[in-house]
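Quick one - first record:
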Amino acid sequence: MRFSTFCSMAAALTTVASNPILTKRKIEQKPQTAEIPPSSNDNIQTSYGKPFAVYQPRAFVISMFVLERDPWLKAMDFVHNITIPGLSPEYPVIHCTTDYTVCQVTTGEGEINAASSISALALNPLFDLTKTYFLVAGIAGGEPAYTTLGGVTFAKYAVQVGLEYQLAYEDYHAVKPEWTAGYVPYGAENPNSYPGNVYGTEVFEINANLRDKAVALASNATLSQGNEKNQQFRELYTEPAARGPASVVSCDVLTSDNYFTGNVLGDYFANLTKLMTNGSATYCSTAQEDNATLEVLTRLDKHGLVDFDRIMVMRTISDFSRPPPSMNAVEYFFNRSDGGIQASLDNLVLAGTPIIHDILTNWDDVYAKGEVYASSNYVGDIFATLGGKPDFGKESFDVA
């Protein structure tokens, strides 16, 4: 071993040893080959323990693009930059605070980028995420019946609505005038039927007790109400929630890489949300990435790499998902003047920081073991990958 290499290793180990947050995990003793029972089914199984992980963050903020990332970089002491393989080429760096208790990653927008980046993070041997709390913190479109510009939403359900057949209006309205939209769930024959086959990513349910704690803490924050144009645009709506001030609400998020707007699609996806969750979920925000992120975390929880019970999904409202009565969908989508998205960006930190602060402040007594706010509801996907019985979906379905 070169002397310079030895010095570098010694310095690194000294740094770890001097920081109480970066404690070396106990290495689990693996059985010797002779102790492994023989198998005749030719199925080799592996585990992915991380006995030499260096970083053990207590909270991880997940952003999707630069505008969501920058408020966190300005608000917290993210002084450490860690580059790992597999992250987005646009966002290859993980940021961590001085003592590495809080870190932040930016996935890149869209479902593919989210799944790829979170997989790269969670499988990297440097990070032990088994006790980490994840806060997905992004902006979204909002339903005026439940929220407003700058509003803050915390979800219990995430519903993927892009897994459908699609027909143009001109191609179906003459023969199917009763259809409410040109979308039809996979394996179904009309827009309002439950899918005949599923991929397993259609619905995720997350820890309602932890969500409720995050909502309670965020509700005490003084939120940004935006600018004068934000207020003027709110007044174009008739719904009390849309016209009112930005606040924190508990309601659910949709995932789709297809941006949509208008009353027809808004009504259809709201009904689909009810259909997919047996009436349990209330659609109030629409985003691109959440089901992709949750799918990765579900798979890795199955192998003990993360704890799905420690996930929160927060979306702040940058725009309305449907136009006010005085505007048509085209006019609204391309020519609206609603004052911009700054309030939603500001409120990511204002509403997200309280739960992170609480995690750090009460780590030893409350959050480390994950028992105080452990879920009492079902958590996981439609396949019951993590055990339990989903309170959504059908008794039986075909797996695509």
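second record:
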Amino acid sequence: MYGITLYGTIDVGVSYQSHGSAFSDAAATNVNNFLIKASNKPNTSLASNGMSISTIGIKGREPLGAGWWGIFQLDTGFLPASMTLIDGPRSLAVNNGVPLAQQKSWGDSSRAGQALNGRAFVGVESPGYGTLTFGRQSTLLNDEVCKYDPLSCSLAFSYVGFFGSTAGTGDTQDRALDGTLKYTVTNGIFHGGAMYQFGNARELSSSRGTAYQVDMGITQGPWSVNAVLAHKNDAILFGTLSAAQVAALYTPGSSTYGLPVDKALPGTVSDNTSYTFLGEYNAGRAKFFGAYEHIRYVNPSSPLPVGSQTIGGYFVVPNNDAFPRPKIFEVAWVGMRYALTPSLDAFAVYYRAMQSSYAKVSCSDSSSAQCSGHYDALSLVLDQHFGRFFDVYGGVQWSKVYDGMANGYLQRASFDPTVGVRVVF
């Protein structure tokens, strides 16, 4: 097939959280489907993007001759429940200086209100030589995590979809990267790829720091396995400014004086390295999945100065010394997808995230965010398809946080059902 194609997805529904936070017109689902620090009281609300990101875009494929094709893709993600573009950093910035119990739903994201907050790349492809693209695009790690997640990185039901650190080499912003050269190829039972981000070339990328990834996999009969090595320099995890930090923005002599309160965010800066192993067994009506990722965070080799501007034009108030010792973060999941009928699928997945103690003196309670801890999530979902372009879904996930990972949380567990409809064109 060739030519230019207009495509899109609209995904909207209703979500309930036993411990949630208020509706946001910027967060990727409008609500916090999983337990976060600000989750506090029962909340029922319209919600977006429960099963997949609502997107509008165009893509093209034109013959170049000698078996080569030129390709491009441009798209953006939006929130049908609020009719706004997804802007994860803005969902945090509106909570700057707001007490935790009063904050609206929030979540960091690589989608930061840009006109093209999804993909924006051009490239060439050949059946024999593979595909080479350049621009803003999904990373190899994100591609494989979503492929081997039974729920395909659903934001309402998948831990690795809602918390993008797994697919982002430790930080959600890095699931998609600007200024990236990406190569993928399939040859018989083997498939793989490599990518590099020119993150320090400001004319090529709005993201700080370089990155690289290598992906290798085999598909043989009902089995498919993959391994991904990924590294990112100057990864940034955004949070919200405290009341004292907001006051400093207006205080002459402060290192942050003059930064705009609606564009300034505290950022934990680190150099991250991960390795990930993923597998699938296709038994026909049932497909079984499993994966494990190991992420190592260390203080950045190139600390960011105060006021560094990054994705979406946001300014960083950096913490370059967050890790007295390397932090080890591990994520694993097992699950299945079962075709109850040709048009009705059932999903069941268990996720666990675990962090080591990285405090100077090891600890294993909730007294500090640097103590060891873990986070559990269990999801059950039904998805009924009505032809190729329309489906209705419903499900529930339960999440609970323990020890160091629970530090600062208002609640420790949440029960979160969601129902929705999705239209694809």
